[in-house]
Fold each of these.
Amino acid sequence: MMAQLPGLGQFRRDKSAAVIASIVMGIVLAALPFLIGSGLGNSWLRIVDFAMLYIMLALGLNIVVGFAGLLDLGYIAFYAVGAYLYALLASPQFGLHYPVWLIIPAGAALAGFFGALLGAPTLRLRGDYLAIVTLGFGEIVRIFLNNLNAPINITNGPQGISGIDPLHFGGVTLAKPISFLGFTIPSLHAYYYLFLGLALFIVFVTIRLENSRIGRAWVAIREDEIAAKACGINTRNIKLLAFTMGASFGGVAGGLFAGFQGFVSPESFNLMESIMVLCMVVLGGMGNIPGVILGGVMLTILPEIFRHGAGPVQLALFGKILLDPEALRMLLFGLALIVVMLYRPAGLWPSTTRRREFKGESTTDVLKEGE
Amino acid sequence: MSHSLLEARAIGKNFGGVTALRDVSLTIKQGEIYGLIGPNGAGKTTFFNVLTGLYHPDGGEIVFAGETLQASAPHKVAKRGIARTFQNIRLFANMTAMENVMVGRHARTHAGVLGAVLHDRRTVNEEAAIRQRAEELLHYVNIADRADDLARNLSYGDQRRLEIARALATEPKLLALDEPAAGMNGAETGDLRELIEGIRKDGITVLLIEHDVKLVMGLCDRVAVLDYGEKICEDIPSVVQNDPKVIEAYLGGSLA
Ligand SMILES: Nc1ncnc2c1ncn2[C@@H]1O[C@H](COP(=O)(O)OP(=O)(O)O)[C@@H](O)[C@H]1O
Ligand SMILES: [Mg+2]
């Protein structure tokens, strides 16, 4: 391997390339809702808004699964906690209408608390056992939400809570077009910019954490818990921190979801959703932030493409619809997952580390040697 | 080298019916290289595991630097100043050599989530210091050229060195090495010997489990011999070598 320090010229070129890339990226991201809105219509813009929420969820789960190596199948519960907190504090349900800037951080904090609550009893568990307990936790939260309508009605049970206040800041609500310096920003566009801003913030936090003492401790625990302890890492606290941080991202996304949708019900937080977010993390490239973002975008958009495409394509090919597009959508989706996992087992965009791991470039296998 | 750094008093450890350690007492003095030898299954690694808090002893107590260590969690033991390596190398396989050593700085650094996210001056300085110290240690154990390679891709000898560098990163008073020369060739063992001598010169006390009798006898100031979980001898190498009980333990071991 040629380990050569890049010359200063090379460094400058890299830096200006990065600046240009970020400017182009910024322009594309800023123009995206207008391109999609006018090109494909508002339903697709809604899907893109949802993709932003899923990116936040995937990045949160990535801290637990990708960094710390703790398999969590109940992650969607934290999304539910954030969503229901928003719904209860800003809807006619109790006649409460707290401001958004208060509820969203409160949702992050409460979800973080639930994260610690899930983490504490599962500290000694790993792998399959941890997966089963977290799966149970996710289901318990959903069932609670489903049943907390009697004897005292808190959540409205399976009917869910509707009439939730849209996201609003002061007198400005995102549910209506916003006039600004003579421009008019349509509602879905405004949501897009808000979600994009928060998603970028979460990306920023995740990158900072990854390259820190805490991030290294998470990965160390994933790699070898006993060695991590011997290095002075309080594995209990650091694992709890992973659960808490990951959950708080989910809480933020949940609050945004409730305000965006105007309606929440337990159905939105079932096991399938947890698995979907896990797929985003694994398919994109566990532990690698760009990969996880890619996973979030693809798994939000692909099923919709299948849903919208399945009908017309069948009509064009066979002149009639043979298979229900809804069923076909999941079929194609499953197929796509299998294909990716077969040909890119480390994910679509793995970190350099995991790519090497899966290619088995290792020259020595002493690390696998038994006791 | 006068006062004792570590005192183990009557340590006992059973696994079901197996007695891995029985009433093992030993004293390690500040600044010495102390050897712990014995046939396979004698209980050496078990002693390390008790010492570093991975196992709870069934009896006895350990006093380290004047304070009792008993029933401490492993991460607290590391903080107190005992670092170790493992008989079956335990590196963070998919982290780079550099990152492995940086993790070793965990116990001596403080940055939390807020610092990591906000990058305040203290955290930035601390992170730079962690990196610098890790670089120095990679140089110290002579694998600086592998800094950016994954630990799993290092050669066996380099992995052993990396594990030592990571242990040193915790700023130990006592460095416990579990068979560091296992699987090394003659030249590598010679280098290792120099490394251990250098570590002692830098003021760190060394506890060494080793099978290579020549290495132990040449390197250690004092040696204890374990057999079936009991200490059968403790003295300077030349005496231990000629002790009839020791000779029997080793002969018996090799005949069985
Ligand atoms: N975790 C464990 N569970 C059960 N038995 C163990 C365990 N660790 C060690 N032993 C037993 O304790 C005895 C001492 O083992 P060990 O300390 O590894 O010996 P050494 O390192 O001297 O070769 C052996 O009989 C071994 O089988
Ligand atoms: Mg051993």
Amino acid sequence: MSFSFDIYDFTSFTKWIDVSLTSYCTPFWAMIWEMLIIGVAILIFYAVVGLFLVYAERKVCAFIQNRVGPNRVGPYGFIQTVADLVKLLFKELVTIKKADKFLFNLAPFIVIIVNFMVIAAIPFAKGLHAVNFNIGIFYMMAVSSMGVIGILLAGWSSNNKFSLIGAMRSGAQIVSYELSVGLSMITMVILAGTMQLTNTYDPVTNQVLVHGIVDLQKDGWFIFTGHLPAIIAFVIFLIAGTAETNRGPFDFAEAESELTAGFHTEYSGIKFALFYLSEFMNMFIVASIAATIFWGGWMPFHLGHIFGDWVSGFNNVMDYIPPFVWYIGKTFVIIWIIMLFKWTFPRLRIDQLLTLEWKYLLPINLINIILMALVVLMGWHF
Amino acid sequence: MTEEISSVVEVDDQEYIINFGPQHPSTHGVLRFVVNLRGEVVKNLQPHIGYIHRGIEKMCEKLTYQQIIHLTDRMDYLSAHMNNEAVCLCVEKALDIEVPERVKYVRTILDELNRIASHQLWWCSFGMDMGGQTCYFYGLRDREKILDIFEETCGGRLLLSYNTPGGLMWDIHPNFQQRIKDFIKYFRKKLPEYDKILTGNVILQERTKGIGHLSLEDAISYGVTGPTARASGFSCDVRKNYPYSAYDKVDFKEILYTEGDTFHRYLARMEEMRESMKILEQLVDNIPAGDFTAKMKPVVKLPEGEYFQRVETSRGELGVYIISKGDKFPYRIKFRSPNFCNLATMNLMASGFKIADLIAISGSMDLVIPDIDR
Amino acid sequence: MKSIIEYISGIYRGLRSLLIGMSVTGKYFFSPRAIVTQQYPENRHGHGKRSKKQLVMFDRFKGEVVMPHDANNQHKCTGCGICEINCPNGTIEIISVSKVGEDGKKKRAIEKHIYRLGMCSFCALCVKTCPSKALEFSQEFEHAVFDRTKLVKVLNKPGSSLMKGVE
Ligand code: SF4
Ligand code: SF4
């Protein structure tokens, strides 16, 4: 098979890698190589996106606050975060005398590993994803909630009361908000009728075996086709997702003005940087999940055929924008909204956080699921 | 450390002790709270002070009355001008000098500008204590306008040293009035933004309403003053009750609430900014012509006796008590600083609430630590 | 029923207040004109990409105490020592000598007017009380030095003399 690279469809590209690798070595080694390639690719992606997000956040908050933000290193301060990372790499790793050293060192890695596991399932463009489970959404939900273990370990092992309070808060927070995130995703699963993220094709006949959530949004993103319940689910997902990423206004685990730095008070140097990066990657993950299940992931903006025949021309124009760009664009719009949350609202108190979840989000969510089920049953969606 | 504290504070086995400060982002300086916590709930709280004690009162005993002024700047640095004025008024009272009308007007204007600047800084740091960091920059952005007025006329931005017994150091700058009018116009537009971003916010209201209640009785018996006391319904505004400078000539409302919780302490300060702007509007066009200082001897010697003068700073009532033995130095000078008394109620207000509330309450008190320690 | 209405209106009011707050921050995000940052080292000169407006300090700004000299290297300080007395924290030290003037009379003249910038609290008493108005504030604010001894300055320039007509 000859080399083919198509920015609209990565399927042939990934297939080309696969075929050429198997032609050189045994399937076992081909598999190992593929894993390595994907691992390295995700690692690079992680670092690049993480650093860019740190930069983006600093710029966004600067503009919101009538400031300029980083503007000294590189054009428009673009390399500032790289410089910061280098600085953090050179910093001393302070070890706490009475800390549980093993857990203390382990904690940042747990947080990072969890991030990687989720990223693996995200479809970035057509044919560009590491794995495509038939329970994709379920997998994401399950894995992303494990990040809290890293935070709990960090808080516990630091042997610092501020850290401990932060970690315990974060535990309570994630346990409750996981529920809302899950339920709002389930609402969309009801609409989609599948938990798989992208289509699987029969290798021979090239027919669709299982429909994926992204491909199902071909004739309109779920937030439009699912109208009211989908919008409610989206809002809930945004709130709960922000809470799950430990970002303001839900940054209890850090709570700078209360707990100095919360669970990572005692971390320094690169270990701190890992926590810091993972916070941003968590945000990226939440945003990309939201983009995928509500805004169609890499699917271009298509109008349904109920608007008449002219839409196919419009849809064709939209198709000219490569899917990867769609995906990144949507994700960053959502990231911007999440950043706006952080830079506008004061922090909640821990009991208000629980009130918000158990008194507001959860009941609304449950009603919303019933509503969505009704909509789907009666065929009221588009 | 723990042993030392637990010998002082009773701790049962469910509680643990945590040190807030002296280095902590929300104590706004070197104040230390030793807090007994049960889970997240504050059981007991002891403020420890003295980390920034500089012995200002003792230093004053070797300084002439003109020289004292610049030290008072450094007590409550956010109401530097009111501190200056307190000493000046006390000395003028002792010498029985009538300062020119112009001086009175300018002093009052600067007082109110300083009050707004101080409340702006309080607003932004309160916002930051609550976790809304953007407030900080909006507040500072607007405060900069006032600092420009100060800088143009007084030469300093924070520490003004513009007063001197008998009057002012020099006359106001020609741009002074215009700049104030510009500022009022500008700030009238920006203040509603403060409300939009913080006052009206449901999170802030939920976090502050009913939190940290201070009853009227406690406010009076602890000697709490300023907006903190007025939020509890204690009418203690020195500007109203014992007018000094030009306060008897202006019409303004004393902001009084009866609820006494964190939210109303917040509101009291927000409303005070509006009232201050009203006062400024009444005065700024009517500054009478005249000298900027009364005739003073180069060496000021107070007649033997004891003198007391109080002024309303942005945090409450500042009293200056001078004992003179007829020298050019005071025999003893004592400042009754508002923050010291306000701080004493912290335990009363915060115990029973959560850590986050403790931060909100101490934020709403607007403590300036160098004023407590002096 | 009433509680349900309260519940829903509570949600409505809450969401509304949050959106109002976001409208303020969102508005500022999209209005780069509102940026108030002054980019420091560039704005000293006031040209270039980063800063169009030049930083001008107010002429009353109390940067540091200086003693102005005229073109003939003459200043107005008579060495009377009043500023030294008036300074609250011993910032100023006057070292004066007796000189025989042109008319043959002995006169106090200044040898060194030492000003310790590191101790000055910018109270302006020296400037105000100087009988011959020999001192002034300059608008210089970049005081950082690597060596503390550099903060001790001699205000009268070497070889300077008293201006004519100043007593
Ligand atoms: S500077 Fe002025 S006050 Fe000081 S010694 Fe010279 S003349 Fe006297
Ligand atoms: S400004 Fe004040 S502290 Fe500084 S030298 Fe002059 S008198 Fe002394």
